[in-house]
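Exercise 3.2. Students should predict the tertiary structure of the chain below and write it as structure tokens, then compare their answer with the key that follows.

Predict this chain's 3D structure.
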Amino acid sequence: MNQVEVSVVTHYVEAQSEPAEERFVFAYTITITNNGSQPAQLMSRHWIITDASGEVEEVRGEGVVGKQPVLAPGESFEYTSGAILKTPVGAMQGEYTFIGDDQTPFGAPIAAFSLSIPNLVH
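Answer key:
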């Protein structure tokens, strides 16, 4: 069975942000773990990024950070990427598409996670 776990850690990148210009930069580190019984290759990503004003951006592409890693059972892959919002608070969610050893594609949902300036939201 295909079981992929996705965990996310986010942080605000103050040095690259320009609040007066409505530019808020966030970095997120994703860890993808194959908890299934067969190898799986990450083929593509689909993100839905929503800022506090309700503006939605969808991002689709092959792989992540230019890679399409193959994860053996029990193996993890970690990468860091970023998002730029026009508001100090937002959220991301999405899905990775994998292909199993048997060439069957399957999705790995990425639960919504927040992007926010520290101490802004309690």
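Discussion points: The chain has no helices and eight strands. The beta strands are 4-12, 24-34, 40-51, 56-62, 70-71, 76-85, 89-100, 105-116.
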